[in-house]
Amino acid sequence: MSIGRLEGKVAVITGGASGIGKACALRFAAEGAEVVIADLVAERCAAAAEEVRKTTNGRALAVPTDVCAEEDIIQLAERAMQEFGHIDTLVAAAGVSSANYVSGETSQDNVLDTNLINLPLASWNRVLQINLTGVMLSDRIVAKHMLAQGTSGSIINIASSAARVPLPGAADYCVSKAGVAMLTNVLSRELAEHNIRVNAIGPGFIETPMTQGLQDQDDGVEMMVGMTPLGRLGTALEIANTALFLASDESSYTTGQTLYPNGGMWAG
Fold it and tell me: Residue 35: what are its φ and ψ, rounded to 5°?
């Protein structure tokens, strides 16, 4: 792998203490980026930043952040500006599979076991608040700093193949991720004249703490692999490599797209 594709860039990564977000932080730092890791749990956030510093020798700033709180994201962006002077990339990776999921923890929930007609309204609201509104707030607050800088930028939203593939029992998750895909499309049009690119990634089933509950069940593994033509789960690094392409100048003519690294789970 080449080194230095993000040399001199600053990347803010929400959900950066575990799973796909953490993989992005490590991968970006290995390519020369300075990273700002935002996550809900302060201890995990600090540990992820320390891992970046130890394994890549890159500069990393940990900022505990609740993406549901607009003031938290405002402070996140301001801390990034104070520390590094500019923001070039946002990876909005903070998200949950269900209302009970806690960032960075191993999920033991069967996230496909509550049909919409039985789903508590509070659970629906929580998933959409984190997965969709949290992404929207992160996008627009970081975009304002990019506009003020007068420089180009890349915003990368983590959606899901569930934005395209309906999963019975996970209506809240599917709808929230479909919203992220459309948010990406609209914002890309609004920011194109400023050379700020907005794209999304729609992973399939990935080996992360979020899918651990399904991985621990024989029928869960059978379901995930059965829906994936390549016959296996993806890795967080594979998604981070996709994000690296979207953050780098190699994707300079790409905006308004959702890429689907999902082992063939959805093709279209």
Answer: -120, 145
For residue 266, being part of any structural domain is answered with no
77-120 pLDDT per residue, tens: 999 999 999 999 999 999 999 888 776 555 445 556 689 999 99
For residue 260, indicate whether it is catalytic.
no
**Within 13 A of 55's CA, how many CA atoms are on the CB side?**
15
Residue 38 sits at φ, ψ, to 5 deg, of -115, 135
Sequence-separated (6 or more) residues with CB below 8 Å from residue 51:
22, 26
Let me know: does 14 contact 38? Beta carbons within 8 Å: yes
Q: Is residue 235 within 8 Å of residue 206, measured between CB atoms?
A: yes
Active-site hit among 101, 173, 253, 260: 173
- Cα 76 vs. chain centroid, distance in angstroms? 16
Query: Is 5 inside a domain boundary?
Result: no
- CATH number of the domain bearing residue 64: 3.40.50.720
Which residue(s) pair with 34 in the sheet?
10
